[in-house]
Specification:
35 strands; globular; five-stranded antiparallel beta sheet; 14% helix
């Protein structure tokens, strides 16, 4: 009991202070010599610990823990929470209530059968290439559907979650625009008997900002691509409507809501998308938990006070002409408790250097990580202001959560830096950067990873995420992938900067504190595919890698390439004329939809 109390609680997440270390030794001695007295002492110590915890302002790591003094930051945690003012609102759910009630009535009615089902295309007026099909059967059956593709291996097939039932609500995704789509609904009994109903679903034309985005496919080896029965490539755009394409480059899904940077698939099959109140608004500050049909399940609202723009990192002209700003500026990730961790600005003169954890139940901020509190003041206090008057010293553009050791990894474009933090204590676990070891304060140096020969020093990188994130791998050995823009912002490799961009896979040994590059692709493409900003790389389930060269040719086009481990291209698609700031910020291959997703209008 004594060991668990002292070692497991007081010492959790980082070094034990000298006071607690000495106390632990004395208590251990007391337990050995006088066991009964030790029990009394433990009880007293528990009261003391609770009292100290209540008096302490924080048990989190800060720069002072690394020997950095006078590291006072602009805002307190409470001020940051107030500036962001997160809350749950029901604006969109309220507007959809009548539609959901209509679909609930259809699901509960005995009127609709497989021979004559209820069919509603674009059920929530936000996703025109989807449909809802509702019917009942006399016998318990499971249901699958197929949207018939125009060419080989472009049909989309899904099995409806719920097993064998008599009441069926079928969410259909993957229709073609401006087409009389053929959709086959198949029921299967427990003894294997199948019945199929063929439906025709007619859709309208694409909206301007998708139709004008010219899609050209120059390579699509469908036998080698990772597409399965229902996977599409999402074009997560910097602005305008997000959409998804099949192996032919045909648009098979889009959302009418404008989004910026953030559209992520959640564990329940829903998607989290950052949008705005209306298309004429300048601020993206509504985070929607929605699905591919357009139904909104939760809506998180943020204050406009902390919004910022990334245009200054592209060009002076873009900074002056663009008024659009965003609150969650680059990334968010779902945590095991289903809260989300998002990259934000704090509302001070500094921007894009803060993270917040938001409760999925209350919409309130439950944790704040201000990176100014963790890194040396020399990195942020004298950094030059941008064209918007803000100081973008960090420019955090990625975050991922590690299930293996309750940690997070982040990417900082403007420091050419990637690092890992203990999520409970904010204590630094490792740092990788081209910043010279001698320029770091001495207390930070033990956290710097040593690169193996031939290992790339990243520059302005994007999209960092873990590969062995499944609770089965050792926390001492980790692999991750990122998109290396290869532009030396502050600490990147100046010798190679601007010559190429690439996807890179790394292996970190945290026992030896080393990092090794294990795979890369892009260098052979040279300056043609160099992108100074944005980009993404995704390792697919067959070990292919999907790479988004998102800002190719000065942002005039986005080039998405899928390659195998030997570097052979199996898919190559280019998007041009996508409208201002509508290039592909990220592109990723995902199932439409995954096995966890279920639509139910009765709930």
């Amino acid at each position: 009991m004594l060991h668990i109390f002292l070692g497991g609680e007081i010492g959790r997440g980082g070094p034990v202070s000298p006071f607690w270390a000495q106390l632990k030794k004395e208590m251990a001695y007391l337990q050995f010599k006088h066991p009964r007295m030790a029990v009394v002492a433990v009880a007293s110590l528990a009261v003391l610990t609770i009292g100290l915890a209540g008096c302490s302002s924080s048990n989190k790591t800060s720069a002072s823990d690394y020997g950095i003094k006078n590291n006072k930051v602009a805002l307190t945690t409470d001020q940051i929470k107030k500036n962001l003012d997160t809350k749950i609102i029901t604006t969109r759910q309220d507007s959809q209530q009548a539609l959901t009630a209509q679909y609930k009535a259809a699901a509960e009615s005995d009127r609709y059968t497989l021979a004559s089902p209820y069919v509603k295309i674009n059920p929530y007026n936000a996703s025109p290439l989807t449909a809802l099909v509702t019917f009942k059967t006399n016998e318990s059956v499971k249901v699958t559907y197929t949207v018939v593709g125009k060419t080989d291996k472009t049909s989309l097939t899904n099995t409806v979650k719920g097993g064998y039932t008599k009441s069926h609500q079928v969410p259909v995704v993957g229709l073609y625009a401006d087409t009389n789509n053929t959709v086959k609904i198949t029921t299967i009994t427990k003894n294997g008997k199948t019945t199929t109903k063929t439906l025709t679903m007619t859709t309208g034309s694409l909206p301007k900002y998708i139709e004008d985005a010219t899609i050209t496919v120059t390579k699509n080896d469908k036998d080698q691509m990772e597409i399965g029965k229902n996977k599409l490539t999402i074009m997560n755009r910097t602005t305008k409507q997000p959409f998804a394409i099949d192996a032919d480059g045909e648009v098979r899904w889009y959302d009418t809501n404008y989004s910026q940077h953030t559209i992520e698939q959640w564990s329940n099959g829903h998607i989290m998308m950052l949008s705005k109140r209306d298309v004429n608004s300048d601020v993206y500050n509504d985070l929607l938990e929605t699905d591919y049909l357009g139904r909104v399940y939760q809506e998180y609202s943020f204050s406009d006070n902390t919004s910022s723009s990334d245009s200054s990192s592209v060009s002076k002209a873009a900074a002056k002409s663009n008024k659009e700003t965003t609150v969650i500026h680059h990334d968010l990730v779902e945590l095991p408790n289903h809260n989300f961790l998002a990259t934000v600005s704090d509302g001070s003169k500094y921007k894009e250097d803060t993270m917040i954890e938001v409760s999925h139940k209350t919409g309130k901020i439950v944790k704040v990580i201000d990176m100014k509190k963790l890194l040396p003041k020399s990195m942020w206090s004298h950094y030059q202001k941008g064209l918007d008057g803000k100081i973008d010293w960090l420019h955090q553009n990625a975050v991922d959560y590690d299930k293996n050791d309750d940690s997070i990894v982040i990417s900082s474009r403007n420091q050419d830096l990637i690092m890992k933090l203990d999520y409970q204590t904010d204590h630094i676990k490792w740092i990788y950067t081209g910043k010279q070891k001698s320029s770091w304060p001495s207390a930070y140096r033990k956290y710097l990873l040593k690169p193996a020969k031939g290992t790339t020093i990243t520059g302005g990188q994007h999209g960092l995420y873990l590969l062995n994130n499944d609770d089965k791998h050792s926390a001492n050995s980790e692999d991750f992938m990122l998109y290396d823009n290869n532009i030396a912002v502050t600490n990147g490799n100046k010798k190679t900067s601007g010559r190429y961009s690439q996807a890179v896979q790394y292996h970190v040994d945290t026992q030896k504190m080393t990092i090794k590059q294990t795979w890369a692709y892009g260098q052979s493409l040279g300056k043609t595919n160099f992108t100074p900003v944005i980009g993404y790389a995704q390792k697919l389930t067959n070990d292919n890698v999907l790479i988004d060269f998102g800002f190719k040719n000065g942002g005039k086009e986005s080039n998405i390439i899928e390659v195998n481990q030997s570097g052979k291209q199996v898919f190559n698609v280019t998007m041009k004329s996508a409208a201002s700031k509508a290039y592909a910020y990220r592109a990723y291959r995902v199932p439409f939809y995954n096995a966890a997703y279920q639509f139910d209008a009765t709930k």
